[in-house]
Design brief:
heterotrimer, A alpha/beta (267), B mainly alpha (234), C alpha/beta (224), A: alpha/beta, D-Maltodextrin-Binding Protein, domain 2, five-stranded mixed sheet, C: 224 residues, alpha/beta, Rossmann fold, 2 domains, six-stranded mixed sheet, globular
């Protein structure tokens, strides 16, 4: 069908050109294929480590790997709706527990592949005095970033810590809430807050970049449970053998060393 | 991080989505606003609300609905042979982009079509020309600047689409990771140099789009001015 | 020829028409602006629908409230020249007329000749109206008189059986208007084309008409 009449050819030359280029791009790019890769639906915070481990992991499980990185909740919703993933690695146990209850994972394959800890850091421009105790330090701060306990896993642990230390009341008017740990990191990076609660891995990156100082690391007892990254093969995996190998690989020495370099701890 | 993949993929997804949106939006705008009968108008009104709904929905909500629709148990996904329905394919990204950009195209096309001088169309009718020929030879060319502007907006919306795409197409580098998703991953993993580069590309693209939109606005204004100046009184 | 007996409710009064135009005759309808002149022409051409009555063009009933007949403007073959010319602004003069030539062939269900032949026919039409040298100009480049000539050329190119002119010359200056009167009279000689022209200009009516009817607040009755 001739959409644009002949007499408009002249006046529309730039648009024709754009359309032609768009057409070329559309068809040039459609050549990616090969055998179906293993799809690893993992929490975004694991992205850099998994990206680094990809070649070794592909060799170990004999299949190509594709990472699908998003928030743990979004990944869970995708899997519940039947999205074709093979392995699930959320940043918190509850998302995995829900899938386990729904029978969507192979129960015997579930294992924690990394752990993290809650850490309090101060922004560089804020003077952090290590001699005082936590309550005294926080008393002079005017703004502190914490995660939203509903949408960000880091917020749940932070709420536990604040409750256990009896600081909830005194901090309530200083708190700036972030929807994800990434948002808290941005607040600290830009110096918008005096400090904040983040995971050890985030703290390590902030400190290495010279944007923050380490103040205190909380024990699992203080934060109400260990921060774990569970991994499991999904029941609908199209290649469960390779997926199993991938989950095992994550517990192996190569993977564990990479996790450790990124600031994670052994589960 | 490979940055060429997301850029090419984004252009491919947004390009195809724009073509589909343009044809669909133009067709719907012409069809729904030509209906005169009362039940027809009620039906058209309902359909119009449906088309415009994604403008009001938060993108993740649109994404969730699409997830149900395109998933292996959904009405559309189950027709698609593959095990995961249409999910996690670049076509899913195209569908998400079409759904969110259609309201912009529809609205622009509707405005453009109604701004065409009705006397020109009446004249073509009295000459004996068929409605189809009038549409392609008179209406569309006269509405073209507005249609092109709508296409540019639709392309812009498709290029920037994030929420719904993340849900239905996933964020798989090299397969479904578009510019906004790569940007999200780069920020999330603290890869500032990649993030800045992608930001630069996005800014360049948006500049190009703004130029097209401004051109189409100028053309529309010019043709309107011409009609007022040269067309005589009505 | 045209036979119209119909009524149509308008916002301020009722259009009440009873008239007939013989083949080859020029009927001028004269009346104040807002007397329903345009509305009457639109009813004949099929651009608007009356409420009741009948309209017959060349023995074909094109509208009848009783028999529920309502032919489209396309099927009525009534040429229409608008006061504002309604030329296609994106086409040059030749393309405007070519469009009409093609439309005419399609309407008569005849095979449309090749593009070159269509253009030649269109060029002839432009020559007849004395604007052949402007074939490649867009409407906005033309003067008011040239635009009206082009609008006439376009309407005639579709070979209508009746021609309806809605105050076509009222926006023109005196000299150009007289020129247009001459052209219309020349066009009419020797054809069986029925012509209905509405105007508020008494002199125009005198010059062009075979017969003049007055329209007043929608009421127009032909006693002939």
């Amino acid at each position: 069908m001739r959409i644009i009449p002949f007499f408009m050819l002249n006046s529309l030359r730039p648009l024709w050109l754009a359309t032609a280029i768009a057409g070329l791009v559309i068809w040039s790019g459609s050549g990616c294929s090969g055998k179906d890769p293993l799809i690893i639906s993992a929490a975004s915070s694991l992205g850099p480590v998994l990206e680094e481990l990809k070649p070794a992991a592909e060799a170990a499980c004999g299949s190509r790997i594709a990472l699908n990185l998003a928030g743990s909740g979004a990944l869970r919703t995708q899997i519940e709706s039947g999205a074709p993933a093979d392995v699930f690695i959320p940043a918190a146990s509850p998302d995995m527990d829900l899938l386990e209850k729904a029978g969507l994972i192979l129960r015997d394959t579930r294992r924690d592949c990394a752990a993290n800890a809650l850490v309090l850091v101060s922004a560089t421009r804020t003077l952090a005095d290590g001699t005082h105790d936590l309550a005294t330090t926080l008393a002079v701060w005017s703004r502190i970033a914490v995660g939203d306990p509903v949408s960000a896993p880091v917020g749940r642990y932070t709420t536990n810590v604040l409750a256990r230390l009896g600081l909830e009341q005194s901090l309530s008017n200083k708190v700036v809430t972030g929807n994800s740990v990434r948002q808290i990191v941005s607040y600290i990076e830009t110096g918008s807050v005096d400090g904040g609660f983040v995971f050890a891995t985030d703290a390590q990156r902030l400190i290495q970049a010279g944007k923050a100082r380490h103040l205190r690391r909380f024990t699992p007892a203080e934060s109400g449970g260990e921060v774990r990254y569970p991994a499991a093969v999904l029941a609908r995996s199209h290649n469960p053998e390779a997926a199993r190998k991938f989950v095992l690989f994550l517990s192996g020495t190569t993977a564990q060393a990479a996790f450790e370099r990124a600031g994670f701890t052994k589960p | 991080m490979n940055l060429l993949d997301p850029i090419l993929l984004s252009l491919r997804v947004a390009g195809l989505a724009t073509v589909i949106t343009a044809v669909l939006g133009l067709f719907l705008a012409a069809r729904l606003n030509a209906t005169r009968s009362r039940p027809g108008r009620i039906l058209a009104g309902g359909l119009e609300s449906l088309i415009l709904a994604p403008m009001v929905f938060p993108p993740t909500m649109t994404g969730y609905l699409l997830l149900l629709l395109l998933g292996p148990n959904g009405p559309v996904g189950s027709l698609w042979g593959a095990s995961g329905g249409l999910l996690f394919s670049w076509l899913a990204a195209v569908i998400a982009s079409v759904v969110v950009s259609l309201p912009l195209m529809y609205q622009s096309a509707k405005t453009a079509l109604t701004s065409v001088d009705p006397h020109c169309i009446a004249a073509a009718r009295t000459l004996g020309s068929s409605e189809r020929r009038i549409f392609w030879k008179i209406t569309v060319p006269l509405a073209w600047p507005g249609i092109a502007g709508g296409m540019a907006l639709a392309f812009a919306r498709a290029i920037g689409e994030f929420g719904a795409t993340l849900m239905v197409a996933g964020n798989i580098p090299g397969a479904t990771q578009t510019i906004p998703l790569a940007l999200y991953s780069a920020v999330e993993s603290g890869n500032t140099s990649a993030a800045n580069l992608l930001l630069g590309v996005t800014v360049a693209l948006s500049f190009a789009i703004v130029i097209v939109v401004r051109w189409s606005e100028r053309r529309t204004a010019a043709s309107r001015a011409h009609r007022l100046a040269g067309g005589g009184s009505r | 020829m045209i036979q119209a007996n119909c009524t149509r409710r308008l916002p301020e009064f009722v259009l009440d028409v009873s008239l007939s135009v013989a083949p080859g005759e020029t009927l001028v309808i004269q009346g104040e602006s807002g007397a329903g002149k345009t509305s009457l022409l639109e009813c004949i051409a099929g651009l608007a629908a009356p409420d009741c009555g009948t309209i017959i063009i060349n023995q074909v009933t094109v509208w009848s409230s009783q028999d529920r007949i309502n032919l489209s403007p396309q099927e009525r073959a009534a040429g229409f020249v608008f006061q504002d010319t309604a030329l296609f602004p994106h086409m040059c003069a030749l393309e405007n007329v070519s469009f009409a030539v093609t439309a005419g062939y399609r309407r008569r269900h005849e095979t449309v000749p090749q593009k070159k032949a269509v253009a030649a026919l269109a060029q002839q039409e432009l020559e007849r109206l004395g604007i052949a040298h402007l074939a490649h100009a867009r409407p906005r480049m033309l003067s008011g008189g040239e635009r009206q000539r082009l609008a006439l050329a376009r309407a005639l190119a579709a070979q209508p059986s009746v021609l309806l002119l809605d105050e076509p010359f009222s926006a023109l200056d005196r000299k150009t208007r007289e020129e247009m009167w001459r052209i219309v009279r020349e066009l009419k000689t020797g054809t069986r084309l029925s012509l209905v022209l509405v105007t508020h200009d008494h002199e125009e009516a005198q010059v062009l008409a075979d017969r003049i009817l007055q329209i007043d607040r929608g009421l127009i009755h032909d006693d002939a």
